[in-house]
Design a protein that fits this description.
Length: 150
């Protein structure tokens, strides 16, 4: 098993993940497009495997799926870091771009492709889902979002 390290642009938030992801995907939902001005590359990890140093800010909103999504980001530089959904208790989405080695994980699917703009570069080699993909296997032990350490 690998450990994945990462953090925000300014370094105020750092994290370590001691698990392999359940899924690695490109997301074209409208929320991700608004966050990134493009699609986002994300990995789904067991929440309990993520250790965070620093205190992310949070924004809660209902997603197109109907689930409540809590997006966590650095309050200083605004880097988007994590998302937790009421539809996936015990799992946390981590943005690949905030990993120290973003190439360590490669997307295997693209989701919400029906929402992608006409200019989007959709990879025909990846599994594609017009909306959400089927849920990956649940992590071994569901947990609350990890507590931040100051």
């Amino acid at each position: 098993m690998s450990a994945y390290l990462g953090g925000c642009l300014c370094g105020q938030i750092r994290f370590r993940i001691a698990a392999e992801p359940a899924a690695v995907r490109l997301c074209w939902c409208r929320d991700c497009q608004r966050l990134a001005a493009n699609g986002t590359a994300n990995a789904l990890f067991p929440t309990a495997a993520i250790e965070i140093t620093g205190t992310p800010a949070a924004h809660v909103r209902a997603a197109d799926s109907g689930n409540q999504v809590t997006r966590r980001f650095c309050p200083a530089c605004g880097s988007q870091l994590f998302s937790d959904s009421s539809g996936r208790p015990g799992s946390t989405v981590v943005r690949l771009g905030v990993l120290d080695e973003p190439s360590a994980l490669r997307p295997t699917a693209q989701i919400w492709t029906a929402s992608a703009p006409t200019w989007a570069c959709l990879d025909p080699a990846l599994e594609a889902h017009p909306k959400a993909a089927p849920a990956p296997a649940a992590p071994a032990t569901p947990a609350q979002p990890p507590a931040a350490r100051a």
